[in-house]
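Expect chain and fold; see below:
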Amino acid sequence: MSGLPREANVPGELMRPPNPTRRELLKQGCAGIAGMAFGNPALLGQNNSRIPDLDQLRRQHQESGVVSPARTYRAMEWEFHTPAQQTFDINVEAAIAASRVAGAESLMFYAQDHWGYAFYPSESAVRHPNLKFDLFGSECTLARKAGLSVTCYYSLQFNNQCAIAHPDWAWTNEDGSEQRFSGRWHIICLDSPYRQYVLAMIDEIFSRYEVDELFLDIFGIQFVMYNHNGIQPFCFCRHTEDAWQKEFPDDPYREGFKTREGWTRRYEWHQRRSMADMLDEIIRIARKHRPNLLISLNGGPESFPDAIMQRVSFIYAEPLDCPTGIALGSILMRGWERPNYQAGVFTEYGYSDIYPAELARVQADALIVQNARTFFVGNAGVLSGIDGQGFSHRWFSVAREAWEDVRNVDCLLGPDLQPLLSTAVFYSNPTRKESEADKRPYDFRNSLLGALELMTHAGRPVESLIDTRLQPDVLNRFELLVLPEVLALSDEHAGIIRDWVGRGGTLISSYRSGLLDERHRPRGNFALADVIGADYLSTDAAYAYDATGKQREGNAITTYLEPHGHPLTQAISIGTVGLPGPFIRMRETSAQEVMSYRLPLFAEDVSKNLWVGWGSPPPGPNTAGVAVAFNRYGKGQSLYLGVPIFWAMQWRAHWIEEWVPAMVRRLVRGPVAELRTQPQSEYVHGSFFHDRARQLILVQILDAIALVTKGERRPTPTVEITLDAARFKISAAEIVWPKTTTVEALLQAGRQSIRLENPDRYTALCLRLAEHSS
């Protein structure tokens, strides 16, 4: 059931630059990374095992000349939000040399910062008052001279200068007040004349300077803020109202917010106008001068609609990490089959604290484990007068150590490596839209990230599967599908999932699963009721909402789950475990009861003096039927949970972290690949990637415990890697980093296993497959 994902099909001249992609560059011989390393026998080791020769690959990579941003794993940003009082006593050439020593292959320089200052001689924008030379131009020239590619940073919607000079350009709340970010940055409305101001700057920058990539920061900021913090994404300035009335003269702008339909119509209009249309205009002007220009954005699929995801070359998808160190945003990005994607490591101030480089190194390793481009982001690492030359020596030292593993293994990585497929977490665009319209957009993100993390802890390869890719041939490659609180599900997708389970797939679903169709119309029953083996009765919110009707925030327990000895609950003892949020009452048809509901003693009501101490009401005598149901369907199986368990992962209840991975391991035995630790550790995780010819598998293992111990080193638990011997025959296995060591693969009970005793923090392991592997 494992295989390769389909190639992305991205139509339209604006969707992808006409320059060669990383994959095409590799095929042209521009770099010795995965597409060639794993696919070209000349680059494999000279021994019989045919393991890649890492030393040879590194040498070829180092000799390849300027590395395009399209194929580097080492990009660095020189953060440069510079107030008016600041001068420019910076040794730019020395800072670029320090970047090279650190390992950077692409540098990001600022053309316009959050203050709204241009760092080049502009005829259309506000130039920094103390800048007497072309800083941006000098940086570009010196970087090229040093053999580095260049990315242009442009702050799009934070611009203090324009908001101060033109108050009517500022993003305005419904009450007429100005919306700001963190109390300091003025947010500009793109319906105002600022739109033309931006386009004039883009025309200047790309007609003058040799730049490889444009990075738009603060793009779609109102939607980022809405999805993360619930801040309403609508501007009420006169420019926005005029633009709306011009397009919809018979639909008064402010009146329409009173209905859900009107709210949604305005939301989608704002998205199109300030995101998709704005991006198209910027791309068209920039590529008029630089046809091969890459476009990247700060944001990701948790904030941007699919139309934006398909228009760009790179998405800055981190830090969507988690306390256990998994680069969740990078896993999420693969669901879009983007030709390229990036992530980031934020660093502390390199001049005000001793930032343990060990932490940045673990974060960078978490990204390459997912085959994502690392992006080292500095908090003013370059600033006038610092350390005598205008840049923080400590900050660059941290960057060097952060890339220690990346510098040595990125020659193995690349877009031709394909993830081994086992578990898919479903990304439902209709559910996301429903969450946005319900004015709780962060609920969708929390459910999705909770599912990705829990499935990673189960030790199987995990992928994000976007609904636009849900077809039988794609789903057939997976062993397990997770629907994390997927409320809206189309009849077509329900049919595909039903057939897949019937042929032997395993489904995990939760909460209001499929109670809406793709047009947001309610169903009277679960879309997959026959697969679940239970019928929907009602949603019980009596314990989840306070006296005002507002959902209780935080981890207040609103129902209890009680196991009854089912084999799937062996990881948790008999008793009760609590969960926040509403829950589903159901009637089982063919399903087995795994857990049942035990209701709280009462619904807390402070106004009526109903509470117990400082915590949630304890379990009372009343029950509410089946809470978790297991069902056999055809040759497959289904586990349904009537609670929003993946959403609740944000509060990190120990029983959820313990039970769900253990339950997954019992449900799907003998997976295509698995990574386990002895003793069990949620901080040790890894990934499995293979070449297109299925001759080699790259296994990467990371122990991220340093993130919670602030750099303290502890022995990594013993790691056992197993693969299904019926699908993969290992002919040789070798640790290629941090030291070269041959390891033995043992065959037992249909599994091939490799045991690594206390491996280092990060380990890269290459497995050579026999020709008859399937």
In short: The mean pLDDT is 90.
